[in-house]
């Protein structure tokens, strides 16, 4: 059997059996490390509500590293510049095509940079808006109107964008919602509990979709 095919099959198997989350470290100077309490809180919520057994301390994986293939779910966030080298873009493309999932949550300001860099990852695919009836909004928690609004930035409606491969959503970008701020410890943003719950529930839906598809 072709060596590359063997690696591909082993990777797909590992991704299918793992329940782990990692923060994606990217170049360009953007604060990829933003919202330090958000993912641990989301993980704890998922473990309680979904019955997952995710490591409570999320890992960090660099965009160009083979380490990303250990995780079925990668999360990235930030306020500004994002940059992928061609090698990193290829690595991310191979990861997503072999069963991985990338969720990018705009903490405000990353949209124009991310859209440009994701074209390196999928130059032949169209960045499309995800409709409210997509399964990612209909997992354990139902969001009939699609992506919820958590924090206000520019008085725009929340939108979800992404890329599909063979019918599966492989990349999700949540914009004008700021889910990650809603996942943080209560005292960070002083959000009402119902707003935090809405953010955590939407985050759990994304994790559940990624783990089951």
Automatic annotation (TrEMBL):
Question: What residue range is the signal peptide?
Answer: 1-18
Originating organism: Sinomicrobium pectinilyticum
**InterPro entries, per database record:** DUF4159
Query: What's the protein called, per UniProt?
Result: DUF4159 domain-containing protein
**Record keywords, A-Z:** Signal
> Which Pfam families does the UniProt record give?
DUF4159
DUF4159 domain location, by residue?
21-211
């Amino acid at each position: 059997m072709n060596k590359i095919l063997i690696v591909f099959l082993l990777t797909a198997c590992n991704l299918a059996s793992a329940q782990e989350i990692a923060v994606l470290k990217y170049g360009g100077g953007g604060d990829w490390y933003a919202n330090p309490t958000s993912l641990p809180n989301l993980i704890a919520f998922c473990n309680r509500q979904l019955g997952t057994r995710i490591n409570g301390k999320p890992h960090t994986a660099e965009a160009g590293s083979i380490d990303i293939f250990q995780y079925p779910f990668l999360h990235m966030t930030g306020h500004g510049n994002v940059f992928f080298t061609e090698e990193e873009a290829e690595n991310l493309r191979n990861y997503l095509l072999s069963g991985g999932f990338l969720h990018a949550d705009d903490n405000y300001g990353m949209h124009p940079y991310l859209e440009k860099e994701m074209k390196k990852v999928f130059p032949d695919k169209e960045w499309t808006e995800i409709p409210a009836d997509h399964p990612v909004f209909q997992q354990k928690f139902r969001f009939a109107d699609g992506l919820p609004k958590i924090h206000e930035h520019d008085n725009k409606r929340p939108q979800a964008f992404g890329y599909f491969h063979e019918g599966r959503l492989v990349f999700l970008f949540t914009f004008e919602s700021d889910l990650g701020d809603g996942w943080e410890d209560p005292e960070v943003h002083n959000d009402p509990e119902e707003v935090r719950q809405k953010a955590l529930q939407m985050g759990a839906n994304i994790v559940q979709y990624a783990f089951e598809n």
